[in-house]
Every structure is written in structure tokens, then in C-alpha cells.
Amino acid sequence: MNIGELKEYTRDIYHLSRISALLGWDQETCMPSRAIEERGDQIALIQGLIHDRLTHETVGSSLGRLADAPLSDLDRRFAAKLKRDYDRSTRLPKALVTGLAKAASSAQAAWARARENNDWSLFEPHLETIISLIIEKAEAIGYEGHVYDALIDEYEPGMTVETLEQLLVGQAPALSGLVKRIAEKPAPDDSFLQQPYDTGKQEAFSRFILKEFGFPLDRGRLDVTAHPFTTSLGADDVRITTRYLPGFFNSAIFGTIHEAGHGFYELGFGDDIRGTILAEGASLGMHESQSRTWENLIGRSRGFWERYYPKLQQLFPENLAGVGLESFYKAVNKVERSFIRVEADEVTYNLHIILRYMLEKSLVAGQIPVRDLPEAWNMLCTEYFGMTPTSFREGVLQDIHWSMGAVGYFPTYALGNLIASQLASVMEKSLGSMNELVKSGEFPRIHAWLHDNIHVHGAAATPGELITAISGKPLSVDPFMDYIGGKYTRLYSL
Amino acid sequence: MNIGELKEYTRDIYHLSRISALLGWDQETCMPSRAIEERGDQIALIQGLIHDRLTHETVGSSLGRLADAPLSDLDRRFAAKLKRDYDRSTRLPKALVTGLAKAASSAQAAWARARENNDWSLFEPHLETIISLIIEKAEAIGYEGHVYDALIDEYEPGMTVETLEQLLVGQAPALSGLVKRIAEKPAPDDSFLQQPYDTGKQEAFSRFILKEFGFPLDRGRLDVTAHPFTTSLGADDVRITTRYLPGFFNSAIFGTIHEAGHGFYELGFGDDIRGTILAEGASLGMHESQSRTWENLIGRSRGFWERYYPKLQQLFPENLAGVGLESFYKAVNKVERSFIRVEADEVTYNLHIILRYMLEKSLVAGQIPVRDLPEAWNMLCTEYFGMTPTSFREGVLQDIHWSMGAVGYFPTYALGNLIASQLASVMEKSLGSMNELVKSGEFPRIHAWLHDNIHVHGAAATPGELITAISGKPLSVDPFMDYIGGKYTRLYSL
Question: What angle do CA B214, B220, B221 make, to 5 degrees?
């Protein structure tokens, strides 16, 4: 196949991945409970069709012939992306793929039981299997430096342990120190956030904010799920989800804003990559940078609540009548050492990730055996947070990722925070202070900047290339530490 | 492939057809408007995969070898069904299939415009194309008697013009006469059905009735669409839809009950055919018989309203406080000569179908040219109903079917009414009067009878075989005429 034929050939892969996304979305939002088994077969069938097309021998031979062909810049990007996908898929023996899927399926069930019963022993043998298969997977894919490089690369192309040590582990002492200094200050009152909030009004406020942002509901939807996510069912069909907790304000609104950030990315791919395998985010870290930009840099800014708190107070007088703007702003930015990652604030969040990164890296390098994982977890937790989990549930059993075989995924959450800050600092140079933009509702300008600089490129550039092109330097931890240091020094009068 | 391998091979076809159904269901219930074009590509891709698998040459050669193999009864049924699907698919040249799909796509758009503007000339050239392609299709498929036989067979296996003349055209004079006698009687008041009915309460009542029927919501859903339908996304995932009109009572509840009848059929296929190409209705007529049994024989019976009218009155006191049971029962069974099929009652309904059957049969036989269709429509309408449409909208342009290339489909609606009555008369012999069963809420017994006699077989038997096996004779018009004659003679004191 020549380049044109390859593009035509891979269009089916693009469509099948969206069809698979619909099967997944429907499963989480609509599907009747007893349909779960057959839905699994349906998804497996579509995934198999994608795999067969992607790994077809003519793809490999065509890519080989293309290596020396004169191609436009975009075609070269396309060929590089296809080669990456082809290589990652063909290097894994089918038995290993099936073995991992099967092991993950029972490990997930075991994890849910183990977590429910706070019984590590129920999960340990399953994680043993997963880790040994994951090591096999890394060896099959290949790597130059650390075995973990082969794993993180799946989610964050080009990322390595060498870089992560500097970006993640390097920031741990400073973050840990900041958390400690904050903990010495009086904690702001946030009890009014944990009260009954009418879920209908929560939804109304979430939809109002989406409208303010300009999220296009003729090209997407907002629905309810247990665990919010964003999924792309087509170039003009990007669906975000949230949940309305009856007793806690933060979850719905920040969840909605977070997913809207992912949604804008998926809706923003350029016309030249529409309907191709380049129509996806450059990496999970880059994707998370978009959700974090909207959730934290915009949604948790003072400007945002200066603009919208009066409306929120009107909507929930029973909860907020006596709460001033300053108290509310402090409450939604309360920093707290806690055991649970998904409830963590902006400051402690990356520490939770660093802990997981340290552990999973050591697991796949064979430096700690699975049986010692709970103890290793608790030690690191004590080191970073100054407190030790008293149950597996609030420790090693809290996250689903490892049971799914997703090793190398966690760092992308922290990278998202770093990327968001680094790119926002560039945006501010051209558009002015983010806080002022948000305060005056200049969401179209923010969105246009993100769109033109990031979204439009999809996966036609690597995250490293994008970051360097936009900010003039590789990803660094400084902009994030500057942002977090500045914001919380003011908030807590450090 | 041997029989076991063929069954395994066709499992993908089964799954792909359910995946296609999800794409369609989502399009009608959830999909954001601008996603329509890409959704079309997605459905076309899945349909193409089904077609490629079904028409693969090894299917043909394997079926050929099976002809003399010793097979179990069920395997023989499976092979016969696969051969039927294979033959129908392979006999159509790809150019004809594509041509029809393309012509139907523009004809549908033209039909919508024509109907909106009441302008036949906008649709006429498109219908010309459709009819000439449909004739080509019939010739490619082949037939022994009438050219129309090749078309009706797609929807109603084994049905022929010869039989339809007797079952449909034969009943026209008697039906027409009954309608005339009813029209001479005073019309019951049904103005209270055409009033504002709170749509939330309409939904509550619809869901209540589904629960009374035992429709399993862990294996299905009820959603809202513009044009209600039922679709099967898996053996344990059958979704029905309805609509809540704010100013008309009948639509939601009878729509829900009708679709529930279709839903029970799809949910009832036996374990031995689960996940195979036999897991579908025996024919569209047989399917419609199930929806009509629930909608008309159950939902429009006196027993049903004796049981539920008090509850309905409580729910809608503003509409029904002063309306007695007898008045309500008469109103939901009001017989009225009207131009529009989808609003027709039990008595006039089949006349609308007979009219369409006569016309489409003549069209494909070349006995009337497309340009004369409006006049032919109006003449038949005058003959059957004693009144002539004054616009194309309430005449020849009212239905979407022909624009979709669905010729041979209409008769299945009328056949559904005949089959429902014939099978119900057998059921009554073993379970007692339907009216009494319904009145005392014996829905599990009715459902079990339909399940054990009809649903469980899926497409493992032809409709003709099923009807003869259950009732001891082929389909006849008498049970339907007996039912309709008896019910409306009492209702209108004829």
C-alpha cells in the first residue's frame, strides 16, 4: 500500500475504535445489568478486528517501503504513528495479550473483593501473575534504559525513568515540605461543602458552567456515571460524564469541568487529521494537562469564583447563604494530608502519584516482591504524608489500575499537572493573567489558545515536541512548583 | 467448515448485528445531532463486515457439503437459515446493493421535503428509481410465481401473492362493510383523551404497566424516541422506546405496550439458539403478532381497563375524574375512518395495509406507473373508506417505507393482526378467556404460553410451520374477523 492507501486502510481502525468507545460508554451509562457478559464479547470482537487490521503483514511491509519515500510532513507523522502502533502490537505474542486480558479480568474481580473485605491476601496472587506478565510484556516490547520505560511509553510516548526521576521524584521533597508548612497553619472550614446539595440543582449548575465554557452539546453530551470519564465516539460526538453526590458539593462541578477539559481536546483535532489514527491526544499526560487546566487553573481559581459564586449562592441559599466568597474559595482549595488519591487536592496529589510510581517501578524491576508491597506502600506513605494507613483499603488496595494491568499509567496524572502549568505560563505571556481572563469570562480566548497550540495537532506531534514548540524548553517541574507555591503561600499566608 | 465451525464462524455475524443495533439505538435516543454523518459511516462499516462474512465463498461451499450430512434437527434449521441468508445476500450484485442504499438515502431526504411541502413531484423521480431498482432486486433474487414474492419473502419467509390475496384482499369487503356499519352508529366521545396529560405521569404509568407485565429491566430498557421501536443489543439487552405526547393519552401507553410485546419475543429465544443466527423472530409478521397481542388483545381489552382504570383515574383526576370505565373503554377503542395509517384503530388498520399492498404489488409488476400512484391511492382510499384525501400528505406521501426501498414490508403489519388472533384463540382453549386472564392479572401465564409456543423457537421454524404446529392449520383470516366482529358488534351494539 502507498501512503494514500494506508490512510484509507486505517480509516476502519479509526471507526472501529469509536464503535468500541460507544460499547464502553453505553456499558457505563445505559446498559442493563445482565447484558455485561455479552457486551464483553462484543468489545472483544471489535478490539480483535482492530488488532487484526493493525498487525496485518501488509501494514508492516508497506511501512518498510515508505521509510525512504518522499512524504509531506503530515504524512510522515501519520506513518510514524502507524509504525509505533504497529510495532507495539506486533511485538506482543498473541498468547501474552490473551493471557494478560484473562489475568486482568480475574484480578479485577479479586481486587474488588479484596478491597471490600480489606483482605490483601485475596489480591496478592493475582497481582503476582499480573506483574510477571507485565514484565514479559516489557521485555517483548523492548527498551534501552529501564524495563519500566517500555511500559510508561505506552501511555506517554518518549517518557523514560531517567526523566521521571527528575520530574516526579525530584519534586517530592519540596512538595512534602510545602504540605508540612501548610499543615502547621489553621485548616479552613469546609464543612459547608459536605452537606446535602440538591442533585437536580447540581446538574443545573454543571450544565450552566458547560454553557459558559462553550462546550457544544450538538457535538457532545453530559451523562451520569459511577466513575466519571470522557470518551470519543466520533469527531463530532464526544461524551463527558460526571456524578452528583447528594452530600458533597465538589464532586459534580469539578468532575464536570475536568471532563470538559478532556472533551475540548477530543473535539479540537484539526480537519487534516479528522477521521485518521492521528485524531487522538498526543499522550495521556497531555490529555490530563487539558483536564487539569480547566479543573484547577480555571475552576479552582479565585477569578472563577468571583465570577460565579454569587450565582452559586443564589442556587444553594440553604447551604451557602452565610458563607463568604473568601471562605468558599479557601474551602474548595483546602490542602489536606489524606490516604486517598482521588480525593486529594492540587498540592498533595502529585505525592500520591510519586508513591505509586516508585512502587510500580520497583515491582517490575524485581526490586520489591509483590508480597512486600503493602509494607512498602505504608513506609512511603509515612515518609510523604507523615501518617500510616490503618487498612489495606486506604492503602495499597485503593486503586483499580494494577488489577487491570495498567502499569506505567499513574505518572501521566502527575505529568498532566506539570504540563498544564508550563503551558499556562506561556499562555499568560500572550493573553495576560489567567485569573483575570477567567474573572471576565474570556473562555473563548483561553479555549482558542489551547485549541490552536495543542488540540489541533492531535497525535501528529509527540508530547515532548509540543511542549518544546510551545514553551521553548522541555518539560520541567518549575512552573508547577511556582504555581502551587505562589497560590498556596497566599492562601495559607505561609 | 463443518457444522460446528460454521456456528462458531457465524457468531461474529450475530455479535456484529447487535453492535449495529446499538449504533442505531444510540442514534435515535442519545447521539448529538452533528454526529449523524460519521455514525452513518460506522453503521456502513459494520454492515459491510456482516455482509463480507455472510457471503464468504467458504460459507457457500460448506453449506453445499452439509446438504447430505447427517445433522440434528436444530443443526438442520441452522443450516437452512444460513443458506437462506447466504442465498439472498449473494444473489444481489454489489453494485445493486450500493445503488439501492444510495438511492434510498436521497429518496428519504426527498420524501421528507415532499411531504413537508405537500409536493408529490419532488418525490416522484426518486420513487421511479427506487421501484426500478427494487424490480432488479426481485429478478436477481428470483421467484416462482409473482415478482412480488421475491420481495415479501425478505420480511415474511414463504409468503406469496397467492396467499396474500386470500388473507388480505379477501378480507377487504367484510372489513369495509364492518367499518360502514360502525360509522352509522353514534361515535363515542374521546375528547378527554386529547387533553394535556402530564408526561411525567404518563411515564410513571407506562413503567408501572411494564412492571405489571413482568418486563425485566435488568435485561432491557425503556427510553424516549420520536418514532418508537424495539431493538435487540444482546440476548439480555432488549431496548424498547416510546414517546410521551403532552396532549394525547393513547400514544405513550399503547406504544409502550406494543413495543413490550416485541421486546418479550426478543428476550425469549431458547438457550439452544442463544448467540446464533437463529436468535431472531421467525418473521416480521410473527413479530408484529406479539406486539399486537399485547397492545390490542391485552391492552385494549375490557379486562385490562377493569383492572387498571381506577389507578389511571387516580393518577389523572384532572382528565378522568368524571369519565366512567365504560366511556373510557369505548374511547380507546373508537373506530374512525381516517387517512393516516399510524393513527388507525384495530378495525380500519388492515384496510390501510391492503391499500398499500395492492399498490406496491402493481408498481413492481409494472401494472401502474409511478406517476399514476397518487391517483390510484386516492381511488382505493375512496373505495375502502368512502373518503378522498385532499392532500398528498394525508395520502400517498404519508409513509416513509417506499423511500427506504422497503417494498413487501407493509403486509407484515396486517399479517401480525391475523396471526395474533389465530394464536390467541388457541391460547384461550388452554388457558381460558383472555379477557378474564387479563382482568385477574395473569400476565405470567399469558407470557409463558407465548414464550413456550413461539418465542423460544426464534427463527428455527418458519412462521408457517409455527402457526400450523400451534393451531393445527395454516394462517386464515377467520379468527381475526371473529375477534374484530365480536368485539365491535358488542361495543357498537351492531
Answer: 100
**What pLDDT, on the 0 to 100 scale, is given for residue B68?**
87
With an 8 Å Cβ cutoff, is A34 touching chain B? yes
Q: What is the pLDDT of residues A237-248, one digit of tens each?
A: 999 999 999 999
Question: What was the pLDDT predicted at A94?
Answer: 87
Cβ atoms of B241 and B281 within 8 Å: the answer is no
Mean pLDDT score of chain B: 96
Cell numbers representing residue B346 in the block: 384495530
Q: Which residues of A touch B235 (CB under 8 A)?
A: 38
Look at residue B67 in the predicted model and tell me its pLDDT: 86
Predicted pLDDT of residue A113 = 95
- The one-letter amino acid at A102: K
Partner A, chain B 172-231, Cβ-Cβ below 8 Å: 216-221
How high is the ipTM of this complex? 0.93
Is residue B493 within 8 angstroms of chain A, CB to CB?
no
Residue of A156, A259, A288, A295 with catalytic role: A259
Contact residues on chain A for B233, CB-CB shorter than 8 A: 31, 35
The number of residues in chain B equals 494
B20-30 mean pLDDT: 95
Q: Is A490 exposed, middle or buried (0-12, 13-18, 19+ CB in 10 A)?
A: exposed
Separation CA A399–CA A274 (nearest Å) = 34
- For β-strands A237-242 and A230-234, DSSP reports them as antiparallel
Which residues in chain A come in under a pLDDT of 50?
none
Domain boundaries, chain A: 3-142, 167-492
CATH 3.40.50.1820 fits B167-492, yes or no: no
How many residue pairs bridge chain A and chain B with CB atoms within 8 Å of each other? Answer: 93
Tell me which residue in A18, A217, A219 faces B42 most closely, judged by beta carbons. A18
Rounded distance between C-alpha atoms, residue A27 and residue A40, angstroms: 10
Q: What is the pLDDT of residues B78-101, one digit of tens each?
A: 999 999 999 999 999 989 998 999
C-alpha Rg value of chain B to the nearest Å: 23
